[in-house]
Design a protein that fits this description.
- The protein is mainly alpha-helical.
- It folds into two domains: 2-97, no CATH class; 124-297, Intergrase catalytic core (hpI Integrase, Chain A), CATH 1.10.443.10.
- The chain is built from 13 helices and five strands.
- It has helices at 15-28, 32-48, 61-73, 78-97, 124-132, 138-152, 158-162, 191-200, 218-243, 253-264, 269-276, 281-289, 294-307; strands at 2-4, 7-8, 169-170, 173-177, 184-188.
- The protein has a three-stranded antiparallel beta sheet with strand order 3-4-5, with no helix packed on it.
- Helix 11 packs across helix 12.
- The chain is globular and about 60 Å long.
- The termini are far apart.
């Protein structure tokens, strides 16, 4: 019995075996973050299956729905459930492209979108405290310097910062490929960036531009990056507490803050979109809409107050 043209039943691999094949391919291509995501989703699905194998042609809409329900029953949030579903769907679609299984769209009935979550941005006042604060503790100073570098480079992500090398400096610009989208971005090296890089240079390991990674082997460097990211986020929480930030800082806070301050100072949407490396202005609109409603709230208060002028209220 055939499951697809030119594909016999015994040729259809299990989901786990096929995802392992994808992971091996991704790691050879040094796409370690994507490989990690595939592993996580596969581990989650196999936990649901209690380790029982499942062939790709047995991944039905009903099976996916049961897995989806299992995740929610175990207290996972909607975006996390969607993440696992999206990764498994991507693996399944790869199998379809390779003619290993016929497209049956088993993920059509489960949520695979991304809910907009409230992202928090720092005020200019808090940002200035971070810039001017005297920090004698080396680890905390390290986190502050990397945070400011991210902000000064239009919210460069930590993974992109970590893998910057001296070769990324070209003709007065930091030019790099954004790992999330593959887009090439260039940031002009302003005097404050140049000063920060000069201060950090003695602590860097060749060929890296920032004092985050040491290993030259790509796989080892990726493990170092994961450890450094955890350390960075922990230190940023302490830094936020020290400057009186109204919420815990994270590696995304600099990016959110750059976008919000740009918006609030009337930088055009197209410029913000280009600066952040978004592939469309629609993405930027969604991003900014989730950042902070304070301007809208103040506008609402203003409209209400104007409406009430001369009116006595109880």
């Amino acid at each position: 019995m055939s499951t697809n043209k030119g594909t016999t039943q015994h040729e259809v691999p299990t989901l786990r075996a096929f995802i392992q094949r994808l992971v091996d391919e991704l790691e050879r291509a040094q796409r370690f973050t994507t490989a990690r995501n595939y592993r996580r989703a596969c581990d989650s699905f196999m936990k649901y299956r209690l380790g029982a194998p499942l062939r790709l042609d047995a991944l039905t809409a009903a099976e996916v729905q049961r897995y989806n329900d299992y995740l929610f029953k175990n207290g996972l949030r909607r975006n996390t459930v969607s993440f696992y579903n999206r990764i498994l769907r991507a693996a399944y679609n790869q199998a379809v492209l390779r003619n290993l299984v016929k497209q049956a769209d088993p993920f059509k009935s489960v949520y695979t979108g991304v809910d907009v979550t409230r992202k928090r941005a720092l005020s200019v006042e808090i940002l200035r405290r971070i810039i001017t604060m005297d920090i004698p503790e080396p680890d905390l100073a390290w986190s502050r310097d990397l945070f400011l570098f991210s902000f000064q480079t239009r919210g460069m992500s930590f993974v992109d910062m970590a893998f910057l090398t001296q070769s990324n400096i070209q003709a007065g610009f930091i030019t790099y490929i954004r790992r999330k989208t593959g887009q090439v971005l260039s940031v002009q090296i302003e005097p404050w960036i140049e000063k920060l890089l000069a201060r950090l240079k003695p602590f860097c390991t060749q060929p890296y531009l920032l004092p985050i990674l040491h290993a030259r082997d790509a796989k080892v460097a990726f493990r170092e990056y994961q450890i450094a990211l955890g350390r960075y986020d922990r230190l940023l929480k302490r830094l936020g507490q020290a400057v009186g930030a109204p919420f815990p800082l994270s590696s995304y806070s600099a990016r959110h803050s750059w976008a919000t301050i740009a918006r609030d100072t009337a930088v055009p949407l197209a410029v913000i979109s280009s600066g952040m490396g978004h592939t469309s202005e629609k993405t930027t609109r969604i991003y900014l809409a989730s950042l902070d409603n304070s301007l809208v709230d103040r506008a609402n208060q203003h409209v209400w107050n104007q409406s009430l002028q001369g009116v006595k209220t109880n």
